[in-house]
Design goal:
Distance between the termini: 18 Å
Mean pLDDT: 93
Strand order of the largest sheet: 1-2-9-4-7
Low-confidence stretches: none
Number of helices: 10
Largest sheet: 5 strands, antiparallel
C-alpha cells in the first residue's frame, strides 16, 4: 500500500496531528483497531468500507467515509480491495471544532461524514478530491475542505491544556491535580471533556497509558508482562490484562501472537504498529 502523510498548516496544526493518503491492497480484508486516545476522520475515495464498532454484531457500510471520536474499545474496519482514501488523525481535542454535536455522541458509534457535515458539503469535497490524483494535491484539497468546516468551540482551551498535560505524562498524572490547577470542578471538567473529546479525563488518561505501554512492546523480543505492567503503573498484572482485553479485545499473549503474525506475513508494511489482523 502507498501511505503519504503530512502535518497541516496553521491553524489546523493545533487540532490535527497529520493528514494522510492511503491507496492499495490492504494486508487483510478486516483489521482490528485498538482504542486510541484520538479521533479519526476518513474520506472514502473507493468502494464502500465496513465498520463494526462497540457491541454491534453486524458491520455497517460507509460509502462517503466516517467520523469516529475517541473510542473506548477496539473496532473492526473492513477495507474494500483495492482501497483508496484520505484521512485525518486528530489531536484528542481536535475533532470538536468540526462537529455540530457533542463528541460523546460519536463515541464507539462512527458516523458517516454526511451525517456530520451534510450531503452538499461532503459531495463537494469528494468531487474536488476526484479531480486530482497526486497524493499531496489530495491532501491540500482535504486541508481546504477542513478549513471550510472549522468553527469556534467554547471550552477548547481548557480541554486542550488538560489533555496536553495528560499526554505529557503518558496518562499517569493525577487528574485531581489537573482539576485543582485548572480552577474548575471535576463535574465541569468531565462535562467539557465529553463535549469536546467524547470521554472523561480519567478515561483519556487510561487510553494514553495503555497506548504508550503497548507501543513500547517489541513483539520480536521476549516480554516480561509483570515487569511491563509494574513499570506502566498498573496495580498488578491482572489489572493490566483487563485493560488489554478492554482496549484491544485480546489477552496480552494473544495480542503479541497477532502482532507477530502481521510482522511475519507483511514485514515492513506501512500499517504495521497499531492495526491488527481480524481475519
Amino acid at each position: 500500500m502507498e501511505y503519504v502523510s503530512r502535518v497541516p498548516r496553521p491553524p489546523l496544526d493545533g487540532l490535527i496531528d497529520d493528514l494522510y493518503y492511503l491507496e492499495g491492497v490492504p494486508p487483510y480484508a478486516r483489521l482490528l483497531l485498538p482504542a486510541a486516545p484520538a479521533p479519526l476522520l476518513i474520506v472514502n475515495l473507493g468502494a464502500p468500507f465496513h465498520i463494526r464498532a462497540g457491541n454491534h454484531i453486524q458491520a455497517a457500510e460507509y460509502a462517503d467515509g466516517c467520523v469516529v471520536s475517541t473510542p473506548t474499545r477496539a473496532w473492526e474496519f473492513g477495507y474494500p480491495i483495492p482501497s483508496r482514501s484520505v484521512g485525518v488523525h486528530f489531536k484528542p481535542w481536535g475533532l470538536a471544532p468540526f462537529l455540530p454535536m457533542a463528541a460523546a455522541e460519536l463515541r464507539d458509534r462512527p458516523a458517516t461524514i454526511e451525517q456530520v457535515w451534510g450531503q452538499p458539503a461532503i459531495a463537494e469535497l469528494r468531487d474536488r478530491l476526484a479531480a486530482v490524483h497526486e497524493p499531496h494535491q489530495l491532501l491540500t484539497v482535504l486541508e481546504e475542505g477542513l478549513m471550510r468546516q472549522v468553527r469556534e468551540t467554547p471550552g477548547l482551551d481548557l480541554v486542550r491544556h488538560v489533555s496536553t498535560a495528560i499526554a505529557a505524562t503518558g496518562g499517569t498524572v493525577a487528574i485531581s491535580d489537573l482539576i485543582a490547577a485548572g480552577g474548575v470542578s471535576s463535574t465541569y471538567l468531565a462535562r467539557s471533556f465529553k463535549q469536546i473529546i467524547g470521554v472523561t479525563p480519567k478515561r483519556l488518561a487510561r487510553a494514553h497509558r495503555f497506548s504508550t505501554t503497548v507501543l513500547a512492546i517489541d513483539p520480536a523480543e521476549p516480554i516480561d508482562w509483570a515487569d511491563l505492567a509494574a513499570r506502566a503503573g498498573y496495580f498488578d498484572q491482572a489489572h493490566f490484562g483487563h485493560e488489554f482485553r478492554e482496549f484491544t479485545g485480546f489477552t496480552p499473549t494473544r495480542y503479541v501472537e497477532v502482532r507477530r503474525r502481521f510482522l511475519r506475513e507483511h514485514p515492513g508494511h506501512v500499517l504495521d504498529g497499531w492495526p491488527l489482523p481480524a481475519d
